[in-house]
User: What shape does this take?
Amino acid sequence: MKRYCLALDLIDDETLIAEYEHWHKAENGWPEIKKSILDAHITAMEIYRTGNRLFMIMETSDEFSFDEKAKADAENPKVQEWEKLMWKFQQPLAWAKEGEKWILMNKIFELKA
Assistant: This one.
């Protein structure tokens, strides 16, 4: 199993943030999006928010590949529709490269008993 942590900002608008959270409630998510995530060998995913900053934790099997996920997403019209809808709420981090959304975070500390 691998764990990845990623960050992204939302547009700092209470109405847009509430709508973004609405779309991420289990009953409002699109089944095709959940399937695309699971098909990519992502075994668990959580998104947390503080203010307009999002933090995602992904757990994956060893078969997971960011490149393969990006390729599959680009070829999936429903994922593209979802991404277009989500971009209405999102904004790149200041240090993101052109077209980059979620930015992979570097682990800088770990404590184990």
